[in-house]
From TrEMBL:
Native source organism of the sequence: Panagrolaimus davidi
Stated name of the protein: C-type lectin domain-containing protein
Cystine connections: 182-216, 242-276
Start and end residues of each ShKT domain: 182-216, 242-276
Domain C-type lectin positions: 30-149
Length: 286
């Protein structure tokens, strides 16, 4: 089955308002920051490198509310993790025993667990225990889940280019001629065009955004040939029989209120997202 909920991080190059990228959430007190929760586990410095590749850092925490929000969101999102904690930006790698943040902001708040931080060799990297939000010093060479603090997107109505944050691949839109009968079936394709070159999204984009993604057939090839499109999958039933048609709706329920994902959640996660009686859902897949 094609999984539409494996989220990638992305940037649109736009010009006006700022919003968090898909797959991330606004930080509770720092409205200029967004939290992204990758699904992989890695070593502390590799986690920081992954965050810097997204133009961010492992997060710093400056008050009790931020700490509680970060640990609670991790607890909700890292449901498949076998670990009880995750990497964040606290460390004393270069300044032991003085702790600091990877983003170089002031280290003005601490929430260490009992007997922490332990002054043990290689325990120079900070981890937050999801249950309770206490901190501990952990071995930097352990692989753990991690969180990135990144900047929001700056956007307007005109897309110039899309850059994936994983390896910096840039895709210029509109470079392939399309037929007059090739159209998008939703109005938000420009906002989700980051998925045009990601095979994990191809089923959805072939259904909803053929024109924007340059997926229209030409004289020699049909980019969507053999792809099982969304329209061929079973739709949710109405009323009391309203169900989810995907198996991982619970793990992605934090996207229920994300307007950019609404067509997808209407199609696959109506029950989980309480969209069974939403009149707008019927307009997306007529």
């Amino acid at each position: 089955m094609f999984y539409i909920f494996f989220l990638v991080f992305f940037y649109f190059i736009f010009s006006t308002n700022a919003t968090c990228p898909l797959g991330s959430i606004p930080f509770i007190s720092d409205k200029t920051g967004c939290l992204y929760f990758p699904k992989d586990k890695t070593y502390f410095l590799d986690a920081e490198l992954a965050c810097t590749n997204l133009s961010g850092h492992l997060p710093s925490v400056h008050n009790k509310m931020e700490n509680m929000f970060l640990s609670q969101e991790a607890l909700k999102i890292f449901t498949e993790s076998t670990d009880s904690d995750f990497w964040f930006g606290a460390n004393d790698i270069n300044s032991s025993p003085k702790w600091s943040w990877m983003d170089n902001t002031p280290f003005d708040y601490e929430n260490w667990d009992k007997a922490q931080p332990q002054n043990i060799s290689d325990n120079d990297c900070g981890a937050i225990i999801m249950e309770g939000g206490k901190w501990k010093a952990a071995n930097c060479y352990m692989q753990k889940s991690y969180v990135c603090m990144v900047s929001p997107l700056i956007h307007s109505t005109t897309v110039a280019s899309i850059t994936t944050l994983s390896f910096g691949t840039t895709v210029e839109m509109g470079t392939t001629p399309v037929g007059d009968d090739c159209t998008d079936t939703i109005s938000d394709c420009a906002k989700t065009a980051y998925a045009c070159t990601d095979d994990k999204y191809k089923s959805v984009m072939c259904t909803l955004c053929k024109k924007t993604c340059n997926l229209c057939p030409n004289n020699t090839t049909d980019p969507c040939a053999g792809v099982v499109t969304v329209s061929t999958l079973p739709p949710p039933t109405a009323g009391s029989q309203c169900i989810d048609t995907a198996t991982n709706c619970g793990a992605t329920s934090y996207e229920c209120k994300n307007s950019l994902y609404k067509p997808i959640m209407c199609k696959y996660c109506k029950k989980t997202c309480n969209l069974c009686n939403d009149p707008h859902c019927s307009t997306y897949f007529d």
